[in-house]
Amino acid sequence: MTNLFDLTGKTAVAIGGNSVLGSAMVKGLAEQGAEIAVVGRNLETAEKVVQEILADGGKAKAFQADVISKESLVKVADEIEAWSGGWDILLNAPGTNSPTPFFELKEDEWDHILDVNLKGIMLTTQVFAERMIEQKRKGSIINISSVSSTTPLSRVFTYSVSKAGVNNMTQFLAREFAPHGIRVNAIIPGFFPAEQNRKILSEERIASIMGHTPMNRFGTPDELAGTAVWLASDRASSFVTGTLIRVDGGFGAMTI
């Protein structure tokens, strides 16, 4: 069974791998033997994640890119290809959020959130999947969605819209890439408190979340690692594509 999840010899490109959730998932991939290209807009935080992976005996390198610039993504793809020769796994975990109420929402804020969360994944997949296909590399693309993508949450209007788009894109690309042996799936995390969402977690909101989560607790970032490893493995999830995998403590199953 251990061999099912062995990623030795695989290279993973982790867009947003320097984030709280992204770093937990890339550490899981590294533990199973994958070498990791940690890509972030902030090179310093990407370097920090790389150092943690190296300290645990893994192989990784930090890269800098802006997900809403195709030129920047092509440049970093060239750099990663020179480093590793190519990649088998693409983890798309860019993200930004805002609690701005609907009628106070400005166009530039709307554009920025959609650019990072949705356009960013589109551009990244264009650049990195195209090279996978050119090199005839079968592999796995893992997009990070959100529970708000299926049940829109209050106070995160634009974020919910963007993540719903990620779900749709995931299923569309799963169909498009299947003939090339590339699987495309999305992970739907529940509530994993991080800097970008702590500002909207009042005591009242926390109570509401707990009341809607059968496991009655928040998730911890490392609890996403197993799902990422499973989806990355071309043995363990070889017939899984176009699927939205919930890791949410039962949030999506809750009813009145």
Would you give an account of this structure?
This protein is 43% helix and 15% strand. It has 256 residues and is of the alpha/beta class. It has one domain: 3-Layer(aba) Sandwich (Rossmann fold), CATH 3.40.50.720. It has a seven-stranded parallel sheet with strand order 3-2-1-4-5-6-7, sandwiched between helices. Helix 5 (157-177) links the parallel strand 5 (139-144) and strand 6. The longest helix has 28 residues, at 107-134. It is globular, with a radius of gyration of 17 Å.
Number of strands: 7
CATH architectural category: 3-Layer(aba) Sandwich
General shape: globular
Major β-sheet, in short? Answer: 7 strands, parallel
Overall radius of gyration: 17 Å
Average pLDDT: 94
Low-confidence stretches: none
By helix and strand content, what is the structural category?
A: alpha/beta
Lateral arrangement of strands in the main beta sheet? 3-2-1-4-5-6-7
Count of the separate structural domains? 1
Give, in order, the helices and strands.
Answer: EHEHEHEHEHEHHHE
CATH homologous superfamily designation: NAD(P)-binding Rossmann-like Domain
**Through-space gap between termini:** 39 Å
Report the portion of residues in β strands: 5-15%
CATH topology: Rossmann fold
Helix percentage range: 40-55%
Number of H/I helices: 8
